[in-house]
Predict the structure.
Amino acid sequence: MSDVERLFRTYNTALVRYLTRRLGDRDWAEEVAQETFVRALRQETITNERAWLFAVATNLVRDEARKDSRRRRHLALLAEEAKESAVEPEPTTLERAQEAALARKAIDDLAEKDRLALLMKEEGLNYSEIAEALDLSPGSVGTTLSRARKRLVENYEALQRAREMREKNAAS
Amino acid sequence: MQHPDEGTIQTWLDGELPPEEAAALEAHVAVCQECTASVAEARGYIAASSRIVTALDAVPGNVIPAARPKRSWYANTQLRAAAAIIIVAGASLLAVKQTGKTLVGNVVATSRSEARVPKASSPPMTAQPNNTLPMAAAAKVSEQKVSGGSAPSQKAAGKVTTPPLPATTASPAIPAAPVPAAQNSVMDEAPNETRAEDAGARLKFGRRSTADSSVSRPSSPILSDVVVTGVAERVEELSVVRVDTVVGEVRTMYRIPTGEEVVLTESSNIAARAGTATTMSALAAPKVMQKQARQQTPVHNSITWVEKVTGRIATLSGPLTKEALEALRQKLPPEHR
C-alpha cells in the first residue's frame, strides 16, 4: 500500500466528516478532502500526518472562501438553504433537520479558531496537533476549547428557546 | 493548590495534563466544592457540545447552490459556449459509434462548468440520519478513544459490502451525470504538471463520478465503500445519541431503530467504573441534554465483556433481552466488540 493510500484509508472518513461539519455540504467536503490527499501526494515526507492533513484542508476551505465572496455568503445562509433547496437522497426526520439547523447556526456563531479547534477535537486530534494545525500555542488550546464548548452550548440553548417561543406564539 | 482556571480544567478533562499536574488537580477537586462544581459544569459542556456537533452530520450533499464554478476559465461565457458546442458534437459522433454505452457523462461534462453535478454513478449517499458518522464522531470525543483512522478501517472491515460501481446508475433524486475523471479537478489553479498526477490520484481513489469501466477501482472494501457512499462506516442499526466522557470511562448512548436506547460503557478498569458511577450521577446536565430524557422503560438488562481490540471492559445495557443485547454487540464497530 502506498503512503497516500494509507493516509486515505486512515484519515479520509474523519477528514470528510470534519469538513462536512465545517462546510455544511457533504459533496463539497469530499472534494476538499480529495484535494487535500492530492496535495499529500506532492509531499515527500509529512511529520505529523493528521495535523498536516487537517491544516491543509482547513486552509483550502479558507482560501476558497477568500477567493469567492459568493461562497462566503452561501456559508452564512446554509442553515436556511439546507432545508429549502437540498436534494436529500434519503429523508431526514424533521426533528433531526431542525437540530442540524440549530447546530449550524450555533457553531457558525463561534469565532473561526474556536470553531475549528472544537471540530478538530471532535475528530480526535490532540492538543499538540490542534495547535500545529491552527498555529496556536499548545498552552492555549484548553482555553480555546473551553470557550468554544461553552459558547456553542449557550448559543444552541438560546436558539432552542427562541424557536420554542416562536412555536408557542404561533400556536396561541 | 490554587483553584484551576477553566482552560486547565478543560485540559485535564481532555487528558492532556502531565501526570503530576493531573494528580494534583484531581486531589484538589476532591476537596474543593467550588472546583467540583466547575468540573461538573465543564463535563456537561463537553458532552453537550459533542452532541451538538454530531447533529451537524444530518446534512445532505449539494447544499451549496449549484452555480459554483469549478474552473476559472469556465467563467468566460464564450469559451464555455465553445466548449459546449465541441463536446456536444463529439458526443453526437460518439453516439453513432458506440450504441451500447452511456454517453451522458460526455454530454453533461459541459454542464459541469455550470453546476455542481451530483455523482450519478453511485447509489444514493448513505444517509447521515441513519448514521454511522455520529457513532464514529462520538467515538472520538474522548481522548481515550481509538484514533480516527483506525476506527473506520476496523468498522468497515466486518460490515461493508462492496457494491459495484454502476456505469450508468442514476439515483432517482439525482440527475444522471457521471463525469470523466479528467474533468474532475476541484481547484481552479491546479498546476498543469500535476494534472496527470491528479487524475491518476483520483483514479486511484476511485473517483466515483466516472462511467468509464476501464478506470482502476480500489479493490479494498473500505475504499470502495468510501467511493460509493462517502463514508467508510455503515452501521445501519445504531445511531449515536450522546457520548459522556469522564476520566477513565466513556459512555456512549445508541438509539436502535425501534426507538429504544442502549448505553455502552467502556472503562479501563473496574475500579474506574465504580468510581465514576457516582460522579456521572452528580453531573448537572445542561438543558440540551435534559431534552433527551426518555420515558421509563421496563426490564433492563446488561451484558459485559472485555473488548478484544482495546482490552477495555465494556458493558452494554438497555431495555432489551440479553439475547438482543448480544445481537447488538455484534453490530458495534469491531474495536468495541
